[in-house]
Amino acid sequence: MQQANYTPDELKAALAGGLIPAMPVMFDREGRFHERAHEAYVAFMSSQPIAGAAVWAHTGRGLLLDEDTARVVMQQWRQGLPRKPLIAGVGARSKYSNPQEATSATLSMASAAAEYGADALLIYPPSWLRDHEQRDSLIVEHHKHLAELGLPLVLFYLYEAAGGVRYTAEVLDELLALPNVIGIKMATLDSVMTYQDVACHIQSRHPNKLLITGEDRFLGYSLRRGAEAALIGMAAVCTDLQAELLTAHFQQRAERFLELSDIVDQLAEVLFIHPMEGYIGRILFALSKLGIIPVEAANDPWGPALTPHDVENITNIFCRKEAQKAQIASADF
Known about the structure:
By secondary structure, the chain is α/β, with parallel strands linked by helices. The chain contains twelve helices and eight strands. An eight-stranded parallel β-sheet has the order 1-8-7-6-5-4-3-2. Strand 7, helix 8 (219-224) and strand 8 (229-232) form a beta-alpha-beta unit. Helix 2 runs parallel beside helix 3 and helix 10 (254-271) packs antiparallel against helix 12 (308-329). The model is unreliable at 325-333 (pLDDT under 50).
């Protein structure tokens, strides 16, 4: 069992009301890890108003990184955010022939995350169980094995098209009953009904667990429907706007919330479009447009190339966004 830096209750308190960006990783045009750009990005994000960081999540290509790169990435974040919780995405990096092998690989990744400084685990959905005849019982068993490591856990409800697995209400009840599970990240993309149903279930059956939104395309609405924190890839760029959106919501400053929500939605409607796997490259390009990373480090080796339409849309929205930010910043609320 790992020695946890946070108890589940301490971690819930640290994350409640806050923004947790899913951090990307920088690569050059040949697909090599751009360590210098990544270090600069870590330094920049250490000054941002975030509650913590999600590392090795999908935005950071956690299941595709080689072990050396994964180690450096986690260690840089641990050094850069010494007093903020790090949540490590963990899962099976490869295809395995049986559930036991996949769970063993996930446990190995989780142990490495703890060794490198992670405070909690975000559990990738066990997609290898999607069509298994004993799916539900094996999903629960998989999470129980991870719970035995002793770190706080964040469940992950991901839409199936992105590699997720549908969790029944009964499975959710068993998973949320695990004592070191602090809550669940919801990422349903275009299934508002699923988000609403799970949100209602958690609020009525598990009110002591955090509902964490991962809904980039309807961030404001997901907060209105009960999310108490946000763990999203979009927060890797324009972090301050999204942190202020959460603050306005929880402080019940409705007018400011609505204005910020409109701006954040415009950003999401440029970054999170089909093909969805392109969102990581779009975020990296946006970071380069803002001067946070060099353009030669704004590459995602596994995603589709940006189209001229992507480049134009991202360039245009930052021209508009700067004007909008100035207008909102000067408003007296």
